[in-house]
Amino acid sequence: MSQLAVGDEAPAFSLPGTGGYTYELRAQRGSPVVLAFYPEDFSPVCSAQLRAYSAAIEDFRDLGAVMWGISPQGLESHEAFAKRRGIAFPLLADVDRSVARSYGVLGPLGFYRRSVFVLDRDQRIRYAHVARAGLTFRPSDELLAAVEEVVRE
Q: How much of the chain is helix, strand and coil, in % rounded to 5?
């Protein structure tokens, strides 16, 4: 699938994640959702990104938003990564890359592109950023502003 754009309906999915839960996007209807696709557990940029988002997690929660990190590693890796790096939100295992494919965030050779989507209460995409090279990430303040816009409506 080609890359999704603002205004598109977010593809539904259900993935296993940290804490022993299965996370289903449709179950979050009615709440803003932030999906942070990241290439790899324990890499320096991914660690910095998810720790930055974790530092702001209460701000996201205060707005009623749900945040999930999604990458292709398995649950064992995600559990270790979350524990060691202090990640304060669920990490979901997209081992077969089907969710990344449906969101259009797979780069050459099937590698994840660092990407963030903010979904509104009806699960339409309201903010989308897909990086060409994943050497930087979108700051928490920018994502919080996108969530605030969704909440104001």
A: 40, 25, 40
Residue 46 annotated to the active site = yes
Whole domain around residue 119: which residue ranges? 14-152
User: Is the pLDDT at 1 greater than 60, yes or no?
Assistant: no
Verdict on whether the full-model pTM lies above 0.70: yes
Among 25, 46, 93, 128, which one carries the catalytic annotation? 46
For residue 137, give the CATH number of its domain: 3.40.30.10
Domains: count for the chain: 1
Find, among 114, 122, 121, the residue nearest to 151 by Cα.
121
Report if residue 94 sits inside a domain: yes
Q: What is the DSSP letter of 109?
A: G
Q: Name the DSSP letter for residue 106.
A: B
Q: What is the pLDDT of residues 41-73, one digit of tens each?
A: 999 999 999 999 999 999 999 999 999 999 999
The reply to whether 100 falls in a domain is yes
